[in-house]
Amino acid sequence: MRTASAVLQAGDTRELIIGAAYGCFRKHGLRKTTIVDIARLAGVSRSTIYEYFPGKAAIMEACAEHASQQFYREMSKAMSRGSVLEEKLSHAAVFVTQARQAIASAKYFDEDAVSLLLTKDVAVLLRESVDFFAPYLAAAKLTGEVRKDLDVEAAGEWFARILFSLFSMPSPIRDMDDPDAPEAVADFVRAHVVRGFCGDRPRPARNASKPR
Questions:
Q1: Angle, nearest 10°, between helix axes 85-104 and 56-79?
Q2: In the structure, how many helices (H) and strands (E) does the chain have?
Q3: Which molecular-function annotation in GO is an example for this chain (predicted)?
Q4: In the chain, which ranges are E strands?
Q5: Could you tell me the domains of the chain?
Q6: In whole angstroms, what is the distance from residue 61 CA to residue 136 CA?
Q7: 47 exposed, middle or buried (CB, 10 Å; 0-12, 13-18, 19+)?
Q8: SS3 content of the chain, % helix, strand, coil (to 5)
Q9: How confident is the model at residue 46 (pLDDT cuts 50, 70, 90)?
Q10: Helix (H, G, I), strand (E, B) or coil at 110
């Protein structure tokens, strides 16, 4: 059986390799980076790399997982500045918009690197996002901040899709790089997203006559 110290060392080595891979991807790009490059920067042998990862694709997948975990941790911190759901989701939207700006300004990242390191498989990322927002929405149901019949999973998916669009598509209407952009994004989310989760809205009569 492996001792606790051996398990800890294995984890440290794996993290060392992932960190080295990030460094290589930034310096050489995803396509040009080799296992030799990663091993050299990590200070380990190629055989050690293969003890933890079967190949470069597996390393890239691990980097993507590491990046998304860090992303959610940072977004959680941003959301913690809000006391109610409306504020928390607004902070999340602002965080995502600012993350897009930061990545866009990082000259050492090419588009392929952004896609592979931060988005992973789209379906997997969407599932992760829904799971991330579910506790916030469920808690809001308990406090009465949202309507009692709100479908938490569906609402989480809908909001996640809004965030994906904020991250991937600059707005043709509002300048996201403007100093006042955070407040504009927050207002957009409050008016068109969060309030859609609250209260019942009047519905058209089912038997209304159709226009001829």
A1: 140
A2: 9, 0
A3: DNA-binding transcription factor activity
A4: none
A5: 1-53 (1.10.10.60), 64-197 (1.10.357)
A6: 28
A7: exposed
A8: 70, 0, 30
A9: very high
A10: coil
19 exposed, middle or buried (CB, 10 Å; 0-12, 13-18, 19+)? middle
Q: Which pair of tokens denotes residue 211?
A: 């226009």
Give the whole-number percent of the chain exceeding pLDDT 90.
32
Residue 169, burial from CB neighbour count under 10 angstroms (0-12, 13-18, 19+): exposed
Q: What confidence tens digit (pLDDT) does each residue in 74-132 have? A: 899 999 999 999 999 999 988 888 776 665 555 434 444 455 555 466 788 888 999 99
pTM of the model: 0.71
Do 163 and 169 meet the contact criterion of CB atoms below 8 Å apart?
A: no
Dig out the tokens for 171 from the structure. Answer: 């707005």
- Tell me which amino acid residue 75 is: M
Q: What residue type is assigned to position 156 of the chain?
A: G
The Cα 21–Cα 56 span in angstroms is 9
| Cβ–Cβ < 8 Å for 77, 36 | no
Tell me if 169 sits within 8 A of 192, measured CB to CB: no
